[in-house]
Design brief:
Elements: E1 10-14, E2 19-26, H1 28-38, H2 40-43, E3 44-45, E4 57-58, H3 60-68, E5 73-79, H4 88-107
Length: 108
């Protein structure tokens, strides 16, 4: 975090199942402006010590400033979540049986 500087554009997908999200193009110049204005410590949300984090995140304030900036381009998308009938265990068994059948054919 100490040496971070924005270096390229960001393409950000905001998924809101059953609602309106979007696809955002955040130009490098926009990131640099927000980064300069709020500072690196307000730009990031660091993981809490002793947790199993997925990495450093943008802070809520930084993300809002980035996506609301006039230079950020947005395509609004209604994210319809389809009902999916899926049983991963049964699917795994099916693939496993197919794999066993194929390996038996190869061995013969």
């Amino acid at each position: 975090m100490e040496t971070y500087e924005p270096k390229c554009d960001i393409l950000l997908a905001q998924l809101k199942w059953g609602g309106v999200g979007g696809l955002y193009h955040i130009p490098l110049e926009t990131q640099q402006e927000v980064f300069r204005n709020i500072g690196k410590h307000a730009y990031f949300k660091l993981p809490k010590p002793g947790t199993n984090p997925r990495g450093v995140e943008f802070s809520k304030d930084a993300l809002l400033k980035l996506i609301m900036h006039p230079n950020t381009k947005k395509i609004q998308i209604f994210w319809l979540k389809p009902a999916v009938e899926f049983n991963p265990y049964e699917r795994w068994i099916k693939y496993w049986k197919e794999g066993v059948s194929r390996s038996n054919l190869i061995q013969r």
